[in-house]
Structures are given as structure tokens and as C-alpha cells.
Specification:
By secondary structure, this protein is of the alpha+beta class. It is about 40% helix and about 15% strand. α1 packs antiparallel against α2. It starts with a strand and ends in a 6-residue tail after the last helix.
């Protein structure tokens, strides 16, 4: 699972690209590299915005789906981040997959 913050901290300008664009570029590359190293693995995405955590889709082995979502996802950032909500959502999602959580 990857948690991605869409909070007010991201619009700040950072070396020509803002932090949001840099995060999206990094996530897209991470998805590609992770899948190349682990071809039978699954990835998920948790989006953090306005103190809420949401999962746009379930765990998937199709990294193109993650990259497409990141490429076309709305670029507005707002609110505060809630790491606790992200972790709770990740644990809830992983409980259905793994009995060790």
C-alpha cells in the first residue's frame, strides 16, 4: 500500500516542480520499478485529503491502472493529513488478504 498526501502542504513550490508533481512522478516510477522486481505482486493506493483516507481501488497487479490514475487524478490539494486514518484503512484492506495482520 502506498499512502499519498493531497493536503495543503503539497502546493508549495519546490525546485520548479511542486511537491505534489514530484510525489506523483516518484510514485509512478516506484510502481513501475516495484512491478518489474515483483511481477506477481499487488499494489494499492491510499489518498489522503481533508483529514480523510480513501482507497480509489482495491489492491491490483496492474500497475498501469495505478499510473493512469496518478496521471489523470485531479490536482487540487486541500486540508490536513491524517496518517492514522491511512494506517487504519491499510490494515483493514490487508486483513482480508493476509491472516498475519
Amino acid at each position: 500500500m502506498s499512502a499519498h498526501s493531497l493536503t495543503l502542504a503539497h502546493p508549495n513550490v519546490h525546485n520548479r516542480k511542486n511537491r505534489f508533481e514530484t510525489s506523483v512522478d516518484w510514485l509512478r516510477q516506484f510502481c513501475k520499478d516495484f512491478h518489474d522486481s515483483n511481477p506477481i505482486s499487488y499494489l494499492g493506493l491510499i489518498v489522503l485529503r481533508n483529514g480523510r483516507a480513501e482507497k480509489p481501488f482495491e489492491l491490483t497487479g496492474a500497475t498501469e491502472r495505478l499510473s493512469d490514475y496518478l496521471a489523470r487524478h485531479e490536482r487540487n490539494t486541500s486540508g490536513e493529513v491524517s496518517l492514522q486514518n491511512a494506517l487504519e484503512l491499510a490494515i483493514k484492506g490487508l486483513k482480508s488478504v493476509c491472516v498475519c495482520v
